[in-house]
Design brief:
9 strands, 342 residues, alpha/beta, binds zinc ion, 17% strand
Length: 342
């Protein structure tokens, strides 16, 4: 990117109500067969248009073709039985009924590659594609086969690497791995989580990113955040090792978070996607709210490495709120761009 402070979103954007129930995670599709395929592509075009209209520089598919950022990927793998369910604790936070790993996992077919080609054909702008990270994937499953979180994560990393290489060949500029689990299992992150992430990104020539947030704006997450005290120092445990990793960019939650901004200093040298839009509220930030966060971040990240972004995905928000937030992000980045060039 030649432009200073290129804007993007962390991942998902709301789906149109004719495609899926709005403001709901895991919302079932309202279409089927050929109509569903066309509907997903139409929705992808709409969210691309919304991003372009708002002045977003690095665009994405807004995850219009997937029901959920982790589940949809796993559904396309063998070795996981979605009928056989067990209740497990997700990210040490809430119980959920999850599928069971019953045998060796492998990718049966490309998962998002056709969708990425479709997006690529619609725009010349840089595009970013999100995949779940290996540690976050294992955290949403019951493992009755490998019986080792590390082993299963490693197998997923190899599968993700196959998918990532095909996404790169389809013309994706930035491949992002979503690892909210990095904010919870610090010892595992340092023992093998970052190594698994690097395995997933191995050999890629496009840019690579990892998104580490405090989760979607759902109740289980906001309750958890309320319990974290006045200062959120979770990032402190994983940044030093991430700084030494092969991953190019780190995506963080900064707007309305209680993360001390100076923790970003621990990433010095990396590109940082600074979350300047809160996805857990319907209140639309003003451009000045966004600019404020970016100015604070600029104390700890060089201007040419600062990428204004959202805290997390916006799937659970209404479309009008999400559009308002995209526009605010873009306008806020513009204010700081002008300050920097003055
Ligand atoms: Zn997130």
């Amino acid at each position: 990117m030649n432009r200073l402070l290129p804007t993007s979103t962390a991942g998902s954007l709301p789906k149109p109500s004719w495609l899926a129930q709005p403001e709901t995670l895991w919302s079932p599709w309202k279409l089927e067969g050929e109509e569903l395929i066309e509907g997903k592509q139409d929705a992808l075009r709409v969210v691309l248009h919304d991003q372009q209209n708002s002045g977003i520089d690095i665009v994405s598919d807004g995850e219009q073709t997937r029901q959920h950022f982790v589940t949809t990927f796993i559904e396309n793998l063998s070795g996981v039985d979605f009928e056989k369910r067990e209740t497990v604790r997700i990210r040490d936070r809430y119980d959920a009924s999850v599928p069971t790993v019953v045998g060796a996992v492998s990718r049966q077919r490309p998962v998002f590659v056709e969708d990425a080609k479709f997006l690529r054909a619609q725009t010349d702008q840089p595009i970013k594609w999100a995949l779940p990270g290996p540690m976050t994937m294992i955290d949403t499953l019951y493992d009755d086969h490998y019986k080792s979180r590390e082993k299963l994560a490693w197998e997923f990393a190899k599968i993700l690497n196959q998918e990532a290489k095909e996404l790169e060949a389809a013309g994706v500029d930035i491949i992002q791995f979503d690892e909210p689990a990095f904010n919870v299992f610090f010892d595992e992150v340092n023992d093998w989580g970052i190594a698994a992430l690097e395995k997933a990104a191995e050999g890629l020539k496009c840019e690579t990113a990892v998104h580490i947030c405090y989760g979607y704006g759902i109740k289980a997450n906001t309750d958890w955040k309320d319990s974290l005290g006045a200062e959120w120092r979770q990032y402190e445990s994983v940044f030093p090792k991430l700084q030494k990793s092969t991953i190019d960019m780190i995506s963080l939650e900064c707007q309305h978070s209680r993360v001390p901004m100076d923790l970003i200093e621990l990433l010095r040298g990396k590109k940082v996607m600074v979350g300047a839009i809160d996805v857990a509220t319907d209140t639309i930030e003003t451009p000045e709210d966004v600019a404020d966060i970016l100015r604070k971040a600029l104390q700890f990240v060089d201007a040419d490495k600062l990428y204004p972004c959202t805290n997390c995905g916006m799937a659970p928000l209404s479309r009008s709120v999400a559009r308002g937030k995209l526009t605010a992000l873009s306008a806020g980045a513009n204010i700081v761009r002008q300050e920097l060039s003055a």
